[in-house]
Amino acid sequence: MTRIAVVGIGADGWPGLGEGARAAILGARTIFGSERQLALVPAEAAGERRALPSPLEPLLDELADGQDGACILASGDPMLHGIGASLARRLGPERLDVHPHPSAFALACARLGWPAADVELVSAVARPADVVARVLQPGRRIVVYVTGADGARTLARVVTERGFGGSRLVVLERLGAPGERVTEATAQTFDAPADPLHAVAIEVGDGPLRPLVPGLPDDAYETDGQLTKRHVRAITLAALAPAPGALLWDVGAGSGSISSGRSKAG
């Protein structure tokens, strides 16, 4: 069975890699990565260098056929919102040799002195920035993965539009690199581009309370008024106690009945 090396590499590049990760790169016949990641690999790595395709499926098909000597470069921890999870699902974890690097999440928490266990991680990579809305609660600490030079600016606008404009917003650019930069503002005052390689930390200030438990306020939904009311929804969902992967249906037959089931994917 052919095995595939998955190496997490940070903005600190080659100096930040351990011996095992370096050996995996130096011994690879083919090295896959983004243009930025491939540029971090020294010339002594003799393997053919290939850019990761987008979409990723053609490469997964190629690797599934048993290509030998491949090394995939990933950002930070490959198994934390990274390519490693996609490879494990498609190829099976038994085919992977994963060499993790400190994630941007870990580095952000270290820079800010935040206990990582108390911080929510949200990925807005290839997703709308509104994905952060679910966890915007006064007092919560959040680290958000974003993409592109406008990632932080777009996120700041979303946080402000959701009523939390006074929240502390910290933009962390090129974490771990010699040119690392940390900029602090509030969500409502931040309006600047950032290095494409950046993450955003948010310390949520005062704003509307949207609990994570069942029973969101009725005005949290777009509706014509025909809506099962808040307390009924809260009691019903609490009684059904859906587990991860469960699927709920609101029948909408005039009785307000709710049925539950499990999706095939769950």
Provide an overview of this structure:
The protein has helices spanning 19-26, 35-38, 57-64, 83-91, 104-112, 151-161, 230-240; strands at residues 4-9, 30-33, 48-51, 70-75, 96-99, 119-123, 141-145, 168-173, 181-186, 198-203, 246-250, 258-262. The chain is of the alpha/beta class and 266 residues long. The chain has a 5-stranded parallel sheet, sandwiched between helices. Strands 6-7-10-8-9 form a 5-stranded mixed sheet, sandwiched between helices. The chain has a two-stranded antiparallel sheet with strand order 11-12.
Main features:
266 residues; 5-stranded mixed β-sheet; globular; alpha/beta
The beta-strand count equals 12
Strand order of the largest sheet: 3-2-4-1-5
Summed up, the helix count is 7
| Rg, Å, rounded | 22 Å
Separation of the first and last Cα atoms: 29 Å
Write down the secondary-structure element order.
EHEHEHEHEHEEHEEEHEE
User: The biggest beta sheet, please?
Assistant: 5 strands, parallel
Indicate the overall shape. Answer: globular
Mean pLDDT score, rounded? 89
User: What structural category arises from helix and sheet content?
Assistant: alpha/beta
Helical residues, percent: 10-25%
Strand content: 15-25%
Which regions contain 5 or more consecutive residues with pLDDT less than 50? 255-266
